[in-house]
Amino acid sequence: MKNIFLTLLVIFALSCSNDTSINTQVIDTSEIELFEVLPSSATGIEFSNIITESPKFNYVQYDVIFNGGGVALADFNNDDLVDIYFTGNQVRDALYLNKGNMQFEDISLASGIAQNELWSSSVSIGDVNGDGFLDIYVCKYLLPNENGRKNVLYINNGDMTFEDKAEEFGVADMGYSTSATFFDMDEDGDLDLYVGNQMPSSRYLKRQSAGVNYAYTDNLYRNDSNGKFTIVTEGAGVKNFAAALSTTASDLNGDGLVDIYVANDYEEPDLFYVNRGDGTFANVAHVSLKHMSNFSMGVDLADFNNDGDIDLFSSDMVASDNYRSKTNMSGMNPAKFWRLVNAGYHHQYMFNALQLNNGNGSFSEIAQMAGVSNTDWSWTALFADLDLDGNKDLVVTNGLFRDVRNKDYIHEIEDLVAQHNKNAGSLSKDELNQSVYELAIAAPSQRLENSAFKNNGDLTFKKIASTWNLNFAGWTQGAAYADLDNDGDMDLVMNHMNDKSQIYKNVAQDQKINNYLKVYATKNNLPCDAARVEIKYDNNTTQLIEITRTRGFLSASEPVALFGLGVTGKVDKLTVTYPDGKQVIQSDINANQTIKIDYTQASTLASNENKLGLFSDITSSKMFPVSHNENEFDDYEREILIPHKMSTLGPVMATADVDGNGTLDIYFGGSATSSGALFPMNTNGSFTAPVSGSEFNLDAKSEDLGATFFDVDSDGDQDLYVVSGGNEYEDGSKNYQDRLYINDGTGIFKKDKSFLALSISGSAVAAADYDGDGDIDVFASGRQVPGFYGYNASSSLYLNEGGKLKLDVNTSKLFNEIGMVTDALWTDYDQDKDLDLLLVGEWMPITIYNNEGGKLSKYDGDEAWKNTSGWWNEITVADLDGDGDDDYIAGNLGLNLKYKASKEEPFKLFTKDFDGNGTHDVYLGYYDQDGTLYPVRGRQCSSEQMPFIKEKFEDYEAFAVASIDDILDDKMEGAALKEVQMFESVWIENQGAGRLKIHKLPNKAQIAPIYTIIPTDFDNDGDIDLFVAGNYYNREVETTRSDAGTGLILRNDGKGNFTPLSTIESGIYASLDARDAVLVEAGPDKRKVIIVANNNGPAQVFGLN
Q1: Closest of 419, 418, 413, 415 to residue 439, by C-alpha
Q2: Where does the pLDDT of residue 209 fall: very low under 50, low under 70, confident under 90, or very high at 90 and above?
Q3: Residue 324: in which H helix or E strand, if any?
Q4: 35-224+231-406+443-511, superfamily in CATH?
Q5: Would you state the pLDDT for residue 525?
Q6: Residue 3's pLDDT band (boundaries 50, 70, 90)?
Q7: Both ends of the chain: CA-CA distance in Å?
Q8: SS3 assignment, position 994
């Protein structure tokens, strides 16, 4: 009772100054200028991080000269006003006292922080000695002399003066420190310290220090609570050789312990240290992250999608427009990429990464779908609900003072570099420095706009920087957020290079835009690091904020939980969970106020509920211990510019009771050189290993890409049809012939040698009595023309004549060169009592062949099918809305790739031997933001396939402004053109009388391609739910591999409205390179089991609970 009384007093005291009137008007903030840039004449902020280049100091000699400075926002004198600390490089740091009303006083000299050596990088904040005042830790960088780069710990004297006591406390790290974060690693109530380091900044010293040198490891310092820290780097398991640019800490796996994330530059992969709880850490980056940024810069950790798990964003440096992407970035080097992967590095791509937390310690990277993958040379990344609508928005700062990766600049100075090296021996040191300086300042310089994205609340973001007045053009590195004027919205402070730093005042509350709740979770009168603040409102809408100061790049933000509530006027439940698990819970809290919750009020221990998911992973039970082994084949050797491998499309599975024992047996397809196999299920629900020396082994050279069981000879048992496909052999090879295996009734199969299928590289088979004569006929798809990506393949129809399949020559003419068909389905879509044929494919629209009296004809009349060309993989039938007819689910590429498509701006493919050298050329085109169709690939890659490009466009700038029409020009005649208008996976509603309507599946189903679909009622509510799965690892290395899929259950409400279950709710984590799945009843309890077949990996098994 006492705690509740104290809480009410605190709430009353802090809310008196707030306007608690509720804003009820819904305002579209995408049309509002949300920020006002305050002039320095009003704020008193004069700080400018000026970089002056010179013969002794330039990019050629120090390649990190333009990395910039940070900013920290914190209340250093406990007056409830947030002060500002800037770090400078060639200028001294600055401390500004907040005097209220957005006015600040420079107290740098009086405070004692302006006495130190130059070149500060990051600034971190924490009360290291527990005296109730915040201290400041500044990382020193770049300078070659050790004394000049000793990190600084400014101890707060409580009177706005500070003393450097880094050496006394034992944290005067000298390791070229770029970043640091305070956190409580051992739950003892004090702040420990992680310091991120790099190799030497001087290029000369880097060459001298080539190779792994653990002298430059990051360091971990344990706070011993006696004014001393102990370095525990090696014992804690965090000794490394990396290239840290950002370090931050948060409980990323939800176990109550604070973990560490380190963003690394260059080819060094990011580090994800999970706290084991015993003073040691384990790097789980390779397990938890499927891929990551290549040149990771800044990082922020926040629950951006309001599911209760902390997500992660890391910034990289890929341009957001065609011109800069073509002029400033070289193509990825495939040989180097795979060499690093095979050497134990990671799959690293030059894109920003948005890692969606799956809730089980793993993450799915979705930046491409979210629309935040490309922001140019980026530094800070910050999540905060800037417009107070309940969704955390994203701010990214940009700009490198010189475009040192400009390809024409690099080419132009090659001769200068050669001349410099030639003359080096005859030049004085000053002359050498002058020569280097001239090389450095020859690089172009371009101001870049900062980026901001409004969170749409559906895993996607909208570009909003210009509207919100956050599109400053320059070179901004550090940035941080805080409610500087205590009005209930987040303001921003940015540290610009070679410009005055700026304060961006948020005007949301001034303009009565939405409502908020501001919560301070305190301990010892200061915000408590790692405390978790969660609110629930409006029928269980949830938001979570974890208190973490170090965010973004080189910077620290205010440690407060500021929640946007939209037009909601009351929070139903507020829960503050402290690092030791104790909680404070409050209910029915009015909006538009600031409250403090203190640790002294905490009593309830947090409960660890382990809810059982719908399924459990039972792979380890060895129920189905089967693996797919992909053969080695380099598709790119003959077709450099294809978007992905065409030789890794398997495996496939098929099920039937082949031995008549009442259980479903499984055929598991093989790759080229590895045969498929039959796995019979015993009556006890276990599977029997395949018989060695079976008939299937004789066809090991053929790759299995489609399979189905049916009774071809009407003898009452299930025979097997297997589609041969792949890209390994020349077109027309006998290894592409489909195969028919006849069952003797006991599950023993013999190949029907009388069946002579066409030699077509296929993918799918659909068997049904389409002509109504009482036996089963077969449609077999043509997937590709090997070695000629984009060419239309022919498909075939085989009629069943007395138990023998014969090519229907006339009907098959309908399918001559119809496209790259991936799947086929017999279905009575128009309810006229006969089976029609639905086809999907890569670069194909959803296609219907209408059946009229056993005669097929292509149907083009339905509006629903127009503009449906996609990269379709699968189509399945089910009655999803309970109206008694066939609806359909079609799996497409999804939206989580750099390729974009729409009716207005389709994604395009041009194929031809454009340069007349006898090879097949593939050229992909996309529409940039200026509405022009440009090539996907750059000048370097394009000219490797078509050498005339390098001759036609002598420099990268000329190529960067050239459209596809400019490039191919007179060579376009005779070229084959394909296009895609949609990449979304969909369900198709049958509205009767042959009318169909397309509905896009939820965005959670668009994060990866869908290769397999199982429709069934998983939750026994009478409605057909969906299980979908898929990934595709084997894309060319300039495109992120598709690996975000984890297997998804979509719960149906009976009307075709689907709700995705989380990984925890479903219990399914099918995160490998999934291609197919089957549902069987297996195991001793004969429960429903989903088996997922993965390319080049083990099958996974999930049992229904």
Answers
A1: 413
A2: low
A3: helix 322-328
A4: YVTN repeat-like/Quinoprotein amine dehydrogenase (2.130.10.10)
A5: 87
A6: very low
A7: 43
A8: coil
Task: State pLDDT tens for residues 429-454.
Answer: 888 888 889 889 999 999 999 999 99
Quick check: 652 and 740 in contact, CB under 8 A? no
Q: Given this model, what pLDDT does residue 426 score?
A: 78
d(CA 608, CA 619): 25
Structure tokens belonging to residue 931? 């509405």
Beta bridge mates, 617:
1102
pLDDT(419) > 80: no
Q: Is 167 helix (H, G, I), strand (E, B) or coil?
A: helix
Write the CATH number of the domain with boundaries 515-601: 2.60.40
CB contact set of 1001 (below 8 Å; sequence gap of 6+)? 889, 984, 985, 986, 987, 1028, 1050, 1058
**Would you kindly state where each structural domain of the chain is located, as residue ranges?**
35-224+231-406+443-511, 515-601, 615-822+833-901+992-1104, 907-979
Residue written as token pair 């951006």 = 304
Q: How far is CA 1102 from the centre of its chain?
A: 25
Cis peptide leading into 39, omega within 30 of 0?
no
Rounded Cα distance, 57 and 65, in Å: 8
Residue 817 tokens read as 């060169």
pLDDT tens-digit series, residues 31-86: 999 999 999 999 999 999 999 999 999 998 899 999 999 999 999 999 999 999 99
Domains 515-601 and 615-822+833-901+992-1104 share a fold: no
Q: How many CB atoms lie within 10 A of CB 414?
A: 10
Place of tokens 């080097």: 333
Side-chain half-sphere of 276: how many Cα atoms within 13 Å? 11
CA 548 to CA 527: how far, in whole Å? 10
Instruction: Specify the pairing of strand 348-349 against strand 292-293.
Output: parallel
Give whole-number Cα distances, 536 to 250, 568, 590, 611, in Å.
21, 11, 12, 20
Closest CA to 827 of 814, 840, 818: 840
Please state the pTM of the whole predicted model. 0.96
Mean pLDDT of the chain: 94
Question: What is the percent of the chain with per-residue pLDDT over 90, rounded to a whole number?
Answer: 88
E strands within 820-906?
820-827, 836-844, 847-852, 855-859, 870-871, 874-878, 887-891
What would the DSSP string read from start to end of 725-741? E-SSS-TT-GGGB-EEE
Identity of the amino acid at 649: L
Map 34-58 to HEC letters.
Answer: CEEEECHHHHCCCCEECCCCECCEC
How far is residue 654 from each of residues 766, 1092, 1099, measured CA to CA in Å?
12, 12, 14
Report the pLDDT averaged over residues 1013-1021.
Answer: 97
Q: What are phi and psi of 203, to 5 degrees?
A: -60, -35
Query: In terms of C-beta distances under 8 Å and separation of at least 24 residues, what long-range contacts does 320-324 make, across chains too?
Result: 320/374, 320/375, 320/376, 320/451, 320/929, 321/928, 321/929, 321/930, 322/928, 322/930, 322/932, 322/934, 322/960, 323/960, 323/961, 324/376, 324/960
| Cβ neighbour number for residue 150 with a 10 Å cutoff | 20
Token pair 């000629």 is at which residue?
Answer: 788
Model confidence over 715-726: pLDDT tens digits?
999 999 999 999
- pLDDT of residue 513 exceeding 90: yes
Radius of gyration of the chain (CA): 31
CB 1063 within 8 A of CB 359: yes
The yes-or-no verdict on residue 12 having pLDDT over 70 is no
Cα–Cα distance for residue pair 324/327, rounded to 1 Å: 5
Pick 615-822+833-901+992-1104's CATH classification: 1.20.1600.10, 1.10.260.40, 2.130.10.10, 3.20.20.60: 2.130.10.10
What average pLDDT does the segment 571-600 reach? 96
